């Protein structure tokens, strides 16, 4: 028997419903652009980064410009009604012009590691260049034209690298090259450009002074960061083991090639790598439990740092051709703590005492504890234990 096909009376899809919208959702800085430009261009936001410590939202655009604006104020302009909508020059903003094409990636390294200067902002664009900016005065400090392809990603090295690399950022380009750019010396320290396939992974083996580069074909390249020497190219299981060892998941699976300090000492002597020689001389076998404990502590510290910010703005783009969208995260507990802290900072000691927040009895008790001698403290503890 043949199956009878019944045509649907009504059909619809999310794509069709989205196309039928008369007013598409606006971007996070669209209202600001309409206020500052009488003839706004429809340039898309191609990269963004939010700096919670400064409350600055940095947006890179398709035309190469970078707009810096207060995160709280631009959200108020988009979501809240009030007198601020009538202000002409509000919110205050900066426009950085230095790229000749689309801005692909942005990095504020001080947010990741405090060793970087708080005024430095790094951007990479389609014009093959990496730009170093002063985020406070909006000036272009330096341009790094070392790649032969558009910049796709920017990274900050971990804190256990050698001191010279700690002042660098790592840039990845579409020509399959990786560079270490020194923000302090304003020059390129290493350019690794022998990769045959697009780069998918950047990892660090700081104890051996290695930069580990993974490509889309599964191959792994090991570069010595101080000398720029290509140590080896790995494929198959060896490549996977090296990547896993960089994550700390399997410290001993790679064997003596990565664990025995003598091997690294001889390799450092052969390549005249002073950093590898110095680190191999003072390094012993690492304890797995200590490494895992350090990892857990880093996760706890990162969660504490993130919870201190009441507002976080995260960029989101599912299609490289689409404009970058933004998701707002509000931490209510951190917001309450910040409001209470600001309120208490404005109160004087007399005001706090009159409102019942503090009392003379509590003040005297803590004063006596602070002024008492060590013998009185010890005798008091002994009497308490006897009771």
UniProtKB/TrEMBL annotation:
<feature type="repeat" description="WD">
    <location>
        <begin position="192"/>
        <end position="233"/>
    </location>
</feature>
<dbReference type="InterPro" id="IPR015943">
    <property type="entry name" value="WD40/YVTN_repeat-like_dom_sf"/>
</dbReference>
<dbReference type="InterPro" id="IPR036322">
    <property type="entry name" value="WD40_repeat_dom_sf"/>
</dbReference>
<dbReference type="InterPro" id="IPR001680">
    <property type="entry name" value="WD40_rpt"/>
</dbReference>
<dbReference type="Pfam" id="PF00400">
    <property type="entry name" value="WD40"/>
</dbReference>
<keyword id="KW-0677">Repeat</keyword>
<dbReference type="InterPro" id="IPR019775">
    <property type="entry name" value="WD40_repeat_CS"/>
</dbReference>
<dbReference type="GO" id="GO:0005737">
    <property type="term" value="C:cytoplasm"/>
</dbReference>
<dbReference type="InterPro" id="IPR049916">
    <property type="entry name" value="WDR72-like"/>
</dbReference>
<protein>
    <submittedName>
        <fullName>WD repeat-containing protein 7-like protein</fullName>
    </submittedName>
</protein>
<feature type="repeat" description="WD">
    <location>
        <begin position="96"/>
        <end position="143"/>
    </location>
</feature>
<keyword id="KW-0853">WD repeat</keyword>
